[in-house]
């Protein structure tokens, strides 16, 4: 295992929150109200974790990315009954701050919405990099490299914690150590709280 990280970058959906069902219902609401067909669970599963641009291209080609982002922003919180927030999230960020390990949330979700979700989860990152902040979203490495620059930490001293192949591919292209949540990576954990065990806090 690499040395103790100087920064940890966290994906949002599936890592700090479980919003899989939220997005399924939101995407289908978007499709209905913008005049598109139903998005099946199989098609949704294959697209999980992609950017808003990719959502637009795949599901809503007759609308702009701004249209889709605006709809997401307006209607996301109507589906909070499906949102699950792990109770250990605030503890993880509190401990990392005490240990002077820098933190970022790096997500393909637009930043305005991501900021609200991060706050609701009780996370307290130093930086949030959302969809549109970097030239390309994950699986490109751009947003991870941007987060590293904002934190003033070289990529080789950072970890990326994610739960999709988009996260893993982005981390590998950025040459950042990848910790998979319920998936294979350079390291693997089953829940975000286990990050503290890896670093040696408990």
Please, could you describe this protein's structure?
By secondary structure, the chain is α/β, with parallel strands linked by helices. It folds into two domains: 7-18 and 84-199, HAD superfamily/HAD-like (Rossmann fold), CATH 3.40.50.1000; 20-82. The chain contains nine helices and six strands, in the order E-H-H-H-H-H-E-H-E-H-E-H-E-E-H. The protein has helices spanning 20-34, 41-47, 52-59, 65-75, 89-98, 111-121, 142-151, 165-174, 195-199; strands spanning 7-10, 102-110, 127-131, 158-162, 177-181, 187-189. It has a six-stranded parallel beta sheet, with helices on both faces. It is globular, with a radius of gyration of 16 Å. The model has no long low-confidence stretch (mean pLDDT 95).
Task: Give the topology, please.
Layout: E1 7-10, H1 20-34, H2 41-47, H3 52-59, H4 65-75, H5 89-98, E2 102-110, H6 111-121, E3 127-131, H7 142-151, E4 158-162, H8 165-174, E5 177-181, E6 187-189, H9 195-199
Parallel strand pairs: 1-2, 1-4, 2-3, 4-5, 5-6
